[in-house]
Amino acid sequence: MFHYTKEVSVSMKEAITKLEESLKSEKFGVLWQLDLKDKLHEKGVNLDQRCKVLEVCNPHEAKKVLEEESLAAYFLPCKIVVYEENGQTKIGMPKPTALIEMLENQNLKEIAADIEKRLIGCIDAV
Question: Hey, where are the domains in the chain?
């Protein structure tokens, strides 16, 4: 599986608030948040599904990754998506280990595994 996804028993708004709190404990911050439904509506496209994309970053980890391999910037910052599907709130992300696999760099794989573990812990805390 290229992703980690979890169903949660709270609203999207509450899930995002709790997620932001858990991310802070790992020194990750939300750089920005994109409301995909609203953005598409602005462009004249209606989407029934609510979906918010959070771009998250731990600056120290980003620096380590970029010093190891410039091409890793293509995968930064990390994305976490909070959305509704069939009335259920879900939180998910592409796994950093799956993305970094394309660069064939063992040092990056170890860094990605650590980041992935920490981000999954943040999602699980919601």
Answer: 3-124
Q: How confident is the model at residue 81 (pLDDT cuts 50, 70, 90)?
A: very high
pTM of the full structure: 0.94
Mean pLDDT value of segment 97-107: 94
**Phi, psi dihedral angles at 83 (to 5 degrees):** -150, 165
Q: How far is CA 56 from CA 45, 88, 95, 115, in A?
A: 26, 23, 13, 11
CA neighbours closer than 13 Å in the CB half-sphere of residue 70: 0
Fold for domain 3-124?
Answer: TATA-Binding Protein (3.30.310)
State in Å, rounded, how far the first CA of the chain is from the last one: 21
